[in-house]
Design goal:
The complex is a heterodimer of chains A (383) and B (575). Chain A folds into three domains: 4-103, Helix Hairpins; 117-252, no CATH class; 302-383. Chain A is built from 20 helices and two strands. In chain A, helix 5 runs parallel beside helix 7, helix 5 packs antiparallel against helix 8 and helix 19 runs antiparallel to helix 20. With 383 residues, chain A is mainly alpha-helical. Helix content of chain A is 61%, strand content 2%. Chain A has helices at residues 4-11, 21-31, 41-58, 80-86, 117-129, 133-147, 159-171, 177-188, 195-205, 210-220, 222-228, 230-233, 243-249, 252-270, 274-287, 291-300, 303-316, 322-333, 340-355, 369-379, and strands spanning 67-70, 100-103. In chain A, strands 1-2 form a two-stranded antiparallel sheet. Chain A starts with a helix and ends with a helix. Chain B has 575 residues and is an alpha+beta fold. Among the domains of chain B are: 202-281, Actin, Chain A, domain 4 (Alpha-Beta Complex); 373-482, Substrate Binding Domain Of DNAk, Chain A, domain 1 (Sandwich), CATH 2.60.34.10; 510-574. Chain B contains 14 helices and 27 strands. In chain B, strands 1, 2, 3, 4, 10 and 11 form a six-stranded mixed sheet that branches. Chain B has a six-stranded mixed sheet with strand order 17-12-13-14-18-21, with helices on both faces. In chain B, helix 4 crosses helix 10 and helix 13 (531-550) packs antiparallel against helix 14. The longest helix of chain B has 25 residues, at 274-298. Classes of the chains: A mainly alpha (383), B alpha+beta (575).
Amino acid sequence: MEDPESAFTVLGLDHTELVNRDRLRRAYARRLRVYSPERDPEGFCRLRAAYELVEALLELGPDQLRAIRLSEPLSTWPPPDDASRVAPTPDLAPSAPPDLELVASCESPERPPVPSLEQLMTQLLAMLEAWDTHEAVALAQHWHDATLDDHREVRSDVVLRWALTRDLLGVAIVLPPEVVRALAVGIATNDLASARPVIEQYLERNPGAVSDLNRHLAKRARNLYQHVGEAFSSRRAAVAVPVARSKRRASHAAVIGTALILINLIRTQSRSDEHERQARADRVTEIQLSPQAAARLSARLSPGGRVVAAAQALRNDPWTTQDERAAALILEEATSPLDCARLRAAEDSLVRAMAARPARADTAIGFPLADLRTGVGQLCREP
Amino acid sequence: MTRTSIGIDLGTTYSLAAIVQDGRPVVLPNALGELLTPSAVSLGDDGTMLVGAVARARATTHPTRTARSFKRDMGTARAIPLADRTFSAPELSAMVLAQLKRDAEATLGRTVDEAVVTVPAYFGDAQRQATRDAGAIAGLVVERIINEPTAAALAYGLHERHREMRAVVIDLGGGTFDVTVLEILEGMIEIQASAGDTQLGGDDFDTALAELVAQGLEAERAGVRAHPQGWARLLDACEAAKRRLSDAELTRVALPELPVGEGRTIQLERPVTRDQAEQAWRPLLERMKLPIQRALRDAQLRADQVDEVLIVGGSTRMPCIAKLATQLFGRLPLRSLPPDEAIVLGAAVQAALKAGDAALDDLVITDVAPFSLGVDTGARIGREVVHGLFSPILERGTVIPASRERTFHTLADGQRAINFGVYQGEHSLVRDNTKLGEYTIRGLAPLPAGEQAVHVRFTYDLNGILEVDMTLDKTGRTESLVIEGSASRLGPAQLKAARAAMARLKFHPREALPNATLLARADALFVELTGRPRSVLGAALAQFRLALEGQDPAEIAQGRAALARFVESLRDARS
């Protein structure tokens, strides 16, 4: 099979259609029912050749989102008015197939493409900046549906920014527009500190809003709170919900987000590639704004913090069983004051409880059991 | 009338049969009511052939009259001795297949004449042909040979066909290890790569554990190894210990009166912890990583892009396998089908697909060639001619069925003949690859070197069987060849002879199998015991033998039930 035209026909693709890799694979999968390797081996070989040809064309481009389409539909080639004007003799008629048009994007009406996480964040932050909160939430939902599971897509160099974006999305509706805008710009430019003057000005004008703002951030946007919380600390009197209490009620998303940061930071640290590690670490520190925030983050990375974060993630996972939740609760409590006997016992019963659900092993969130065990091990190491 | 087609997993240690009923695959039980039939054949003392659990139990008491793990010898010319007679691996496999066929027929109440049989992905052409031959000897038309991990994927795919995912199937059976990368999309299950190790399986974990236990015996070690019966008992005990270590952290291997040659016996009793065992297994676990990495590389996939890790095969019950998978993929493996049954369930699905079962209409599966196939070529470098280069025609990972062509030219002036060696493998020199067969085209017109071109077309079908076509461009002459050059391949005449020989063999009657199996199991246990339990078991055995001779069905049934309970309780007490 040499020409893309017949390949498109065999694959059942419309000639005017923009085709990216996903579309190609779906078309191929659907056609397999007609040209099944079982019932029609020769038809299958033709289909496969067509697939491999279009796949090779797609790979010509450097960009993952590249799509192709034939510039003209087969039925109108050569274009009719050309034909009537020039009226070429049959052997002079253009015999070459229509050229391929290489298109850099893959916009198509019925199935919006799934953007990468970075593109998504850029879009979301731009929307938030423009105060299009509802659209931003809808876009995030669409992305979430389309990718099924966002934390698989998260790279460690964007994870913190993503966690902050997601936090902001969660509280945008209840925050004043100027604060949302300032935070969005801050996250987008990796400079959250720039949002602080705006927040302070706002609080200056509306002293009564301090406790509300503080509460919303502390409750529903833990990561943001960590990074801009100092804006409130000077107004100590107004702090309504202490962190320690709000921790219990922290939203699911925020806790998963925190756990993610931990997992990814830990992973980043264990990467063997020294160079890459340095590069990633640099990017992570860029976003760590204040020394206080950095200190708090590193506290999270301490053995105790690790255990607590992992236990919280587990408690907030909807699939967690009663036994596991009970064990997680004990793990959380026994870290301070440190009670190694209880920790060890809870760890054992958690491991047993998790082992007892092999049929549902698939539903465990990327649960860092190993990290939890390491954390407990470090906490309770023999002196 | 429609023909009945079943799926068969012809395993190294166990075999199973299954069929699709009402759109769902179910495993068919054997004469003992068990789902797993051990892949073991024993020559009875009265000259009858014993297959399955009874033969498995006799491996301890009659090691020289019993054959196991013969799947590893498929495709070789090796003769396997059973007492004074010898059998080939396909013949022994045929006996297992025939037993499964009889059991399936008894359960279904109709004749079974076709089957889909699974083989490890890494089985080469010769081993696939040998499997096909085994089916023919057993009187089954083997409609399709499919790869075991593909079958497992099919069983999972049937469950998950409405989901879209990329998955890795890790299959550690008794004797083989396979890794397969696949994608499920719009009702299509696409196998994207497979890799494996033909010489790695649960048996190796038994051996490693036995070596570990024997290490404690230093002086006796050589003696234990050399004494077949003693070694078989040690392996058996270690297999049981391995199973116990899947649930417990600590177990013990106890063998009173273990024979070590020269008529001596020793008392063996040794505690083994899971950590110790996993230490001993570390080299095996390391070996498992290589095929996994290769399969991922072939599929151009990173470990973190995998949505699910599916583990199948009885040996994956060992926690260290799940641990390895978790470590490599960063996620817990999925095990929603019984590990022993996933493969046979998939084979049954394939049999139903082949038969055009309407309930499975929206499912299509595509597989890949697990190894590269090519020809032996030479090259002129300066004035030297280098021979024995491997020129692949069909690359590993090509989606099958597939047909690929390459053109070659004559190497010498006036060359009158071309000799093609057909090889499978991944090495650049043919001597490192496996030879499948060869063919010589003679009577070429004498032309200067490089003038005569020959187009070689390889066609690889869904069963993994290769057809070679050669066309000379000057004359348009075409020669074709279906690979059957390997030493172990049986011709039609040999097949017929083998089938006749099989018909002459006396098989233990199926109805009597539960009695024979119980006797063999009790005998095997008797050897292990000492003291009072041993004498009590001896008495119970004697009583049951007496009942058998009396031929009163009621009395036999009663005696069997009593002895079975006794054997069970003793086995439980020991483990």
